[in-house]
Structure formats: C-alpha cells, structure tokens
Amino acid sequence: MIWNQPKECMGREQMRALQGERLHKLVERVYHNTPFYRRKMQEMDVTPDDIRTVDDVVKLPFTTKQDLRDNYPYGLFAVPMSQIVRLHASSGTTGSPTVVGYTRRDLAIWSEMIARCLSAFGTDCNDIFSVAYGYGLFTGGLGLHYGVEHLGATVIPMSSGNTAKHIKLIHDFGATAITCTPSYALYLAEAMAQAGIPREEFRLKTGIFGAEPWTENMRREIETKMGVNAYNIYGLSEVMGPGVSHECACKNGSHIIEDHFLPEIISPDTLEPLPYGEQGELVFTTLTKEGMPLLRYRTKDLCSLTDEPCPCGRTNVRMSRIVGRSDDMLIIRGVNIFPSQVESVILEMEEFEPHYLLVVDRVQNLDSLEVQVEVRDGFYSDEVSKMIGLRQRLAARLHSVLGLKADIKLVEPSSIERSEGKARRVIDKRILH
Ligand code: ADP
Ligand code: K
Ligand code: ZN
C-alpha cells in the first residue's frame, strides 16, 4: 500500500515545482530567523529572491557537522525555544554530539514519513512492532515509535538491551515486525536460536533495519537467521532521524521523502554537484523543517541517486546503499577501503560468521590492517593446516577486492563483541601514535 499516493507518486515536474516553492520559503525563513545563514548568504551575495526554482539550490551555502558544533547547542534553530517541543542529539559516532530541535509540526511530519516507510515495507495496522532501537536522545527509538502509532499498528517500546526479556516479549506478544540496527538484529537472531523456543512459535515476518551501513550479504544473513523479510531504512538526526529514505518491495534502492528533503550528490573534493548515477557525498536541504532547518547539509554518506521509474509506482528519487561515510574510509598504505567491502567478502564465504573487526595500526611507519573474523561453528577446527588454508583463501579474496594485503586473524564463534546499537567495526590505533 502507498500511504501518501499524491506525494509518493507525483509527476517529476510537479515534484520539482513543489520543491522549488518550498525551497524559496525555506530560504526566506532562515535568512530572517537564523543569523548564521543570513551571514553566510550575505558573504556569497545571495538573497532569498535569487532562489526561485529547485535548480537554484546550488547557489546556497553548504552546512557541515562542524557548523552545528560551532553553533552548539541552539545556534541553528530557526524558531524561539517556546516552539521547540523536543530535543534529540546525534549519537556522536564521530565526535562530540550535536543537538537538534523539533516543533510540533516537525514531529507530525516525521511520524507521517515513517508511516510511508512502514507501508512500503508491507506492514499495516494489524502489525505488532518491537521497536528495539535505543529510546532516548538517539532518534531511532522515539522516531520509529511515533511512526508506528501513526500507522495505527501496535508498538512495543522495547528499546535496546535486555535481550532475554526482549525475546520473551517478541514471543509472548506475538510481534510481527522488528526494527533495530542490523548488527543488533544479528545478535538477537543468534540469541533467539539459543533460547530454545521453536522458530514456528515466533510470528516475526518483517525486519526494518538501519542507522549503520550494511550490505546485501548481511541482509541475506539476517533474513535466514531471523526468518524475516528485511528492509533498509535510512536517516540522520541532523536532517530529521530515521525515515528520510526507505526501500519498497522492489529492494532496488531507497526512495527519498523528496517533498520534505531535497537530495543532491556532490564531489566531496570539488563540492561540485554530480549527475544521477555517479557516486559522491549525499547532501540534503530540509524543505519543510521548522525547528532546525538546514541548507545543503553534507551528510558525509557516500552513495548515488537515480530517478529511473520504480516498478512499485513511487516516483521519488532513490538512493543506493551507503557504501560508507567519508569519515569511515580508511586509507591504508594509500589505498582507500570501507568496512562494508570487507563485510561483503566475508559473507560470501560460508565458513564465516558476519562478525568482524578491522584493526589498523602503524608499525615502523608502515600501515597494517588486521581483519579479525569469526569462523562458523562446524568450520572451526583444531587442525592447524585447515585453518591456515582458510586464512589464505580469505586473504586472497580480500587482496583481490581491496587491492591490499591484510593479516587475517580467525577467531572462535561468539568471540567478537556484540552490539545492541551501532556496531564498532574499526579500531584505528594509528590515532594513538
Ligand atoms: P551519528 O552521526 O552520531 O551516528 P545518527 O544517529 O544521526 O548520528 O546517524 C546517522 C548516520 O547513520 C547516517 O549519516 C549514516 O551514516 C548512518 N545510517 C543511518 N541509516 C543508515 C542506513 N540505512 N544505511 C547506512 N548507513 C546508515
Ligand atoms: K517549548
Ligand atoms: Zn519503489
């Protein structure tokens, strides 16, 4: 079902016209209400009158996470605090937290966006959702929570942690859908298998995962282990939270909620806009946000966009999976690599569990990469020659994909730390030297 047919299936020209109108109004608002943006626009000699169509967006200044930090806590808010009804903070994966503020209308729009996502995943008012993202400052928990209610489905506000109780409630309450990070989903699936409750006694059928990068191979792994149909949901707190984009039944990229968020792809080096199809940094302008509207926010997330028609009938632009964040990119002996590339390779080999850790170091001025990976039960062996053979095969595959030699450390099942939220995939010891 398509929750908001007029907005999700709008003709491209009509959408662009709507975005242009909203962009003009947005720029007027921030020009008058946010001194930070007025100053930036004055420096660039742009006024709201120069911004009439969606193509004019390129005349506007970028916003970065550093701008949010420099204006911490409320400097980018565009309404008085009397109109802010909620605060969230980003989880600070890459540094000190940043604060975001929402008006009543922002929250209503957010819930409606999530209802669109959940409908695209095939869920409806008959579903019972376990929301297992963290509740609190993180946008995942409360964001999904109110979206599920808006859909009219039933929400179990689980939050993360307490996995044993979680499994009992998913079972007893007959949860049909679950939403959390993909890494927690894996952890939970393993714990469900160990709990001794027969798989048929669970009613779970839909899994909605996001908040960190994950690969197609990871999707298959979770689907098999948990017995759900798994969908990708994307978002970031600065822009709104989860629900900025979502997959549909076609699973061929994630539709962006374009009537509220105007996407661009830029070259992270030259900052020039790139055409559809090319990979670069994703940038969003929040067309309707009141509390903390942002012009051309640089997400650091690397992906590509397409406006090719989708068989589901939605016309909104789709984004590819996030390859990684530009800050996650490791440069090892001059070679650029993303943890997701290692994940793909590991999961293509049946001998490995989807649990891995990259340890980067610098020894005698030379970068080193160690890949720690869990060997699946049944493949782990005390026979040294078997393990050496396995290590060599993985090393060879990684070498051909990454163009880099990695040291492989095979570890026993369940020895790498599990995550209830966003997984930590990299330990970069070079920072300490
Ligand atoms: P932080 O930047 O502190 O982690 P957020 O909790 O807002 O703050 O996280 C947003 C980021 O999480 C995004 O910019 C993106 O890097 C990542 N993310 C969110 N959803 C997905 C997804 N479905 N796939 C890949 N990455 C995602
Ligand atoms: K208030
Ligand atoms: Zn679609």
Automatic annotation (TrEMBL):
One Pfam family from the record: AMP-binding
Keywords (A to Z) from UniProt: Ligase, Nucleotide-binding
Pathway assigned to this chain's UniProt record: Aromatic compound metabolism; phenylacetate degradation
Reactions listed under catalytic activity: 2-phenylacetate + ATP + CoA = phenylacetyl-CoA + AMP + diphosphate
Keyword Signal applies: no
Residue ranges of domain AMP-dependent ligase C-terminal in the record: 334-430
Entries under Gene3D superfamilies matching the protein: 3.30.300.30, N-terminal domain of ligase-like (3.40.50.12780)
Top enzyme category: ligase
Residue span(s) of domain AMP-dependent synthetase/ligase: 84-284
EC number(s) given by UniProt: 6.2.1.30
GO molecular function, one term: nucleotide binding
GO biological process: phenylacetate catabolic process
Self-association state and partner proteins as the record states: Monomer.
General function of this protein: Catalyzes the activation of phenylacetic acid (PA) to phenylacetyl-CoA (PA-CoA).
Record-stated family: Belongs to the phenylacetyl-CoA ligase family.
Protein name (record): Phenylacetate-coenzyme A ligase
